[in-house]
């Protein structure tokens, strides 16, 4: 199999991530959960962190939220392998707690490196923590936490890429009433991931 230079650089990065002990979360790591999908995708999707099932399987979105994620993608007509999927925090956060300041500071440089290598045109942060990271990175104003929900499903112009924030699939585990709005917001992904398939303005 021929490896291109991006793949080589990323594989080196992934090896370092899997050996990382820069914060206390490494003690929970059973399997290293690596990013997956197309290393040349123009869309990067950022989840929060591996859950219990992901920590056991070593694959992203394999637990209950993974089933929801797959359903939302299927509804949108988007294939996982056409995105680059990664996590903000690379090791499991026990009881899905939010990352502490020191865990955040230790881990987010990995994601920063991925962004620099992949140079995505569109970034899709899933949920509050990933969106917070992107807003800080792109030097965009951050609303109070309870107002982040108004940003989901809206396009935000960043300095390096367009941002399209979505609720994390886990949100549906806690509030099935969000099914309609989330399905609608995820449906937009088809236009983002497959822009060449969209009808042109003058075709209408
Ligand atoms: Fe390293 Fe991030 Fe895992 Fe902490 S969470 S040990 S910084 S890879």
Notes on the protein architecture:
With 204 residues, the protein is α/β, with parallel strands linked by helices. The protein has one domain (24-192): Uracil-DNA Glycosylase, subunit E (3-Layer(aba) Sandwich). It is built from 8 helices and 6 strands, in the order αββααβαβαββααα. The protein has helices at 5-19, 52-57, 64-76, 101-118, 128-137, 170-174, 179-187, 189-193; strands at 36-37, 43-47, 84-87, 122-125, 156-157, 162-163. Strands 1-3-2-4-6-5 form a 6-stranded mixed sheet. Strand 5 and strand 6 form a beta hairpin. Helix 1 packs antiparallel against helix 4 (101-118) and helix 3 crosses helix 7 (179-187). The structure holds iron/sulfur cluster (SF4). Iron/sulfur cluster (SF4) is lined by residues 17, 20-23, 25-26, 89-91, 103, 106-107. Residues 17, 20-23, 25-26, 89-91, 103, 106-107 line the site of iron/sulfur cluster.
Provide a concise account of the structure shown:
The chain is α/β, with parallel strands linked by helices and 204 residues long. It has helices spanning 5-19, 52-57, 64-76, 101-118, 128-137, 170-174, 179-187, 189-193; strands at residues 36-37, 43-47, 84-87, 122-125, 156-157, 162-163. α1 (5-19) runs antiparallel to α4 and α3 (64-76) crosses α7.
